[in-house]
Amino acid sequence: MEFEEVLFSRRSVRRFQDRQVPEELLEKILTAGLYAPSACNFQAWKFIVLTDRAQMEKLRFDLVLRAPCGVLVTYRNDLYVTGRKHRDYVQSAAAAIENMLLEAKNLGLGGCWICNLPRQGALRRAFGIPRNFDVIAYVMLGYPQEEANTDKQMRYHYGSARDAELRTRRYGLAQAVSRERFTQVPGDCAQEKRPWAEKVRFFVKEHFYKGE
Ligand SMILES: Cc1cc2nc3c(=O)[nH]c(=O)nc-3n(C[C@H](O)[C@H](O)[C@H](O)COP(=O)(O)O)c2cc1C
């Protein structure tokens, strides 16, 4: 695929075919992760590939079981470099994650970035991760089902059809970009305040939702 086609057509995929990701494609995706920029070029990520359902269950989030495979992205949290106050280790891992998602798309696969995960301590115990590594996110990977991103999925994800509508749009340059200083314009992300009802709904979903 052309680079811009990959870039602008990538969407999160949350429904997958019952088909394993071939090892050579998985390796290409992981390699794309390795080519991401990282703070001070430390490349201090460690990717844990999960294909075993029993291991995926330890993530305690039913959604992840839909994908035949996934990558738990961890990064060292004890490298005290200048960017620490801006959490450079999270940023470095995030760059690797996005590279992997774009390469997945390029190869005809799909994926979803998952941050709804158990606490660090529980993850460390479950996967044998040392204390000086943090889990940054999990990346679901697989062959997409054709009907990815249905309305139903969007409503699950965003709480209501109205919210889904609001958040699935892409901001344009006029809303998302300002010059020299932070500015607000009508309709940008700084204008919307989450109403109380939505906050409560979000809390309930986060803590009590157990899959569709
Ligand atoms: C930091 C981060 C965390 C995310 N966590 C989740 C998650 O826990 N569950 C999920 O279904 N999607 C998750 N997503 C995917 C977003 O919902 C998705 O990227 C967003 O809705 C935009 O849709 P698109 O990826 O199809 O363009 C996450 C994305 C990011 C960047």
CATH C-level class of the largest domain = Alpha Beta
CATH architectural designation of the largest domain: 3-Layer(aba) Sandwich
What fraction strand? 5-15%
Q: How many beta-strand segments?
A: 4
Task: Explain the overall architecture.
The structure is a single chain. The protein has 212 residues and is an alpha+beta fold. It folds into 2 domains: 3-142, NADH Oxidase (3-Layer(aba) Sandwich), CATH 3.40.109.10; 151-208, no CATH class. The protein is 40% helix and 14% strand. A 4-stranded antiparallel beta sheet has the order 1-2-4-3, with helices on both faces. Helix 2 runs antiparallel to helix 4. It starts with a helix and ends with a helix. The model has no long low-confidence stretch (mean pLDDT 88). The structure holds flavin mononucleotide. Flavin mononucleotide binds at residues 11-12, 14, 63, 112-116, 157.
Secondary-structure topology with pairs:
Elements: H1 3-9, H2 23-34, E1 45-50, H3 53-57, E2 69-76, H4 88-106, E3 110-114, H5 120-127, E4 133-142, H6 151-158, H7 161-168, H8 173-176, H9 196-208
Helix pairs in contact: 1-4, 2-4, 6-7
Bound molecules: flavin mononucleotide.
